[in-house]
Amino acid sequence: xxxxxxxxxRAIRIVLAAxxxxxxxxxDGVHFNAAExxxxxxRYSLVWWEAGNLLDKWSHRLAGLLPWSDGLRGxxxxxxxxxxxxxxxxLTREVGRLAADPAHPAHDHAAIxxxxxxxxxxxxxxxAVRGEAEEAIESTVSAVLSELGLGSLGPLDYxxxxxxxxxxxxxxxxxxxxxxxxxxxxxVVPGLAVVEREEIEDAILEDAGLSALVSDIGxxxxxxxxxxxxxxxxxxxxxxxxxxLHHYLVAHMRPLGLQALVSDExxxxxxxxxxxxxxxxxxMAFAKLGGVVEPPVQPGPAAESSESNERPFDFNKRMRETRxxxxxxxxxxxxxxxxRYMEERRKLFVENGYYLxxxxxxxxxxxxxxxxxxxxxxxxxRMMRDVRAAIPDLKLFVSAVSAVSxxxxxxxxxxxxxGTGPLP
Length: 424
Description:
Elements: H1 2-28, H2 34-38, H3 46-63, H4 74-100, H5 109-148, E1 152-153, E2 156-157, E3 163-166, E4 170-176, E5 185-188, H6 194-208, E6 210-215, E7 219-220, E8 225-228, H7 233-251, H8 255-258, H9 264-288, H10 301-305, H11 315-331, H12 335-351, H13 361-367, H14 380-390, H15 394-402, H16 407-417
Parallel strand pairs: 3-8
Antiparallel strand pairs: 1-2, 4-5, 4-6, 7-8
Helix pairs in contact: 1-3, 4-5, 5-9, 7-9, 11-12, 14-16
């Protein structure tokens, strides 16, 4: 009975959250920005997503309380789900390869149809264990949060860790051409073809004069959070923790959460905190499930200074160079030169195995919100790492950063901690 009561309370909170999302969506419909107008035919509705997933997810959870329920649990469900995810990915790539190569001996409708039938069966089998896999991810991340002392409100977890393994929407991001800054945005259905993406981007450029990009994303902080169904387990755990922190910052009325959309810089602080938190908690959860977390490989001085032609292509270094050069050209008013340069660099990345469809101002505006990424020129990433180094306790780190309500307060926090060494 106690478990049923807890689930009922969680369901009530989720319904209230969904109602809030619906209200926001209705408000957004009063005025369509340039991104929404250009992508209207492909619009993604969070309201419909919530309506279509809440009942399904919670009916599954309530069914788990019935005495005759014997679904897969724990690690077994995760192993089966992510094994099927790998199979779905393999078959999807095989269909794409055959469809794109008319000269291939297997390029005929019967061969492709056979693989598509296998793909449909793999997806169906994966859907059958999705609920148990979600529960296992949620309970593992919740256990880590409990150990850290985060997210509790009396006897209940608040907000509860709640995810849906699904295909997240894509996002239409725009930026002025003269400066890299996030402007009009919209959500569109996942899986748009390249030609459809480019039609949206071209329409925004022609109608509004904005640089645009239709980009895929790994998750959305809806409630339950959407976590990409096609990522490996470690990434799914990281995204779950990342999106949960967004929920936490709002549910606990933290200034950083409430002020996240006030400016691009506040959004960057918010997202960078969530990225660091998500990575650390995700790794803890991965280890709890028996995974091995390898430390990142740091290049040595010799590798950095070598000019050998055999040196591996350094994506982060080359991307960082690109961003800084683009910033410089735009600051000088050389917009068309910056755009030519970005296309030249895109080709360089493609030649080295990084298949970027487009690099433009919108690309940097979107990726630059995550200050630890090489596409960002923001100092927030470095300052956030310094703050984290000075506050070894993850809960205290989140508490300190989430208390800031402006970029100036964050800079003051970083300056106060600079040179102090790790705090106890």
